[in-house]
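Render this sequence as a predicted structure.
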Amino acid sequence: MPDAVPTFKSIRLPAVWRALALTLIAASLAATARADDSDVPSLAGKRIAISMTGTSHYFDIKTFQAQVDEVKRLGGTPITLDAGRNDKNLVNQLQTVVTQKPDAVIQTLGTLSVIDPWLKRISKAGIPLFTIDAPSQYSLNNTTSDNMATGKALAGQLIKDAGGKGNVLVFNGFYGVPVCAIRYDQLKLALKDQPEMNIIEPELRDVIPNTVQDAYSQVSALLNKYPKGSISAIWAAWDIPQLGASKALVDAGRTEIKTYGVDGTPEVLELMRREDSPIGAVVAQQPVLIGKTAVQNVARYLAGQRDLPKETQVPTLLTTAANLPEVQKLRGDN
């Protein structure tokens, strides 16, 4: 985080946003996503490469489509690439980007140890590089949620719901993805102050593909090992494994165990509506705003604005059954 926070023009936010008081905006944000589209420069005549690690779930799909739509709205031409959640494909994809020589590249997600050498090549080729949820040293600007505040809020809700007691099952299959690592680090940090709470070892490993089915199977098997009262919560850095775990709890009649995750995938929010739902909380991201903001940062840079912050953070919303309708309205889900 930078030492100083830049000053921005005030933004009038919807009343429901103010009333919720749920946005997790850190005091030292590098930048705040702008709500005013009127000052965004044109991308006419510009080719923007939109490189996706994958488009297999809600966050991916919404972020991708928002980028495509915003590039078109600003008069540019999107070049779309999808690696299908395969690291080898992603490396080949980034190599292809260099040869295509677009006016700018936006890379969404990816394990830094895999993508950074290729992001370096893009940067060295003189192609302006931007990222989403991938804080590479070679990126001019990374658009992301405030993942530190997100992780802290989710951990706080978990601890509150558990009454500061009990064991926690954790899915930790993607610690190499920076946003997942940040969220998990915040959970571990919060649990240091909770002597009666422990993470069950070994940790569970979420996988891609078949994330829901695999999480369902892993949790179902463990429920036989851990009787009622021995597990308080299940945590995941994103909510697709949370969905699988929650379905396993429902089918086993073990909804005394609550689940926690990040994204706000519609299927997870729908399951939260159930009276006996095991979903304790999910921190809802705003993927449409994230994708749109990234493209707007590209447009500003290509128009000559060279003072963009290294990171632009988009607010997230801690969501429980109590405020679910308001969150869905705010995100435009309804």
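Summary. The longest strand covers residues 47-52. The two ends are 35 Å apart (CA to CA).
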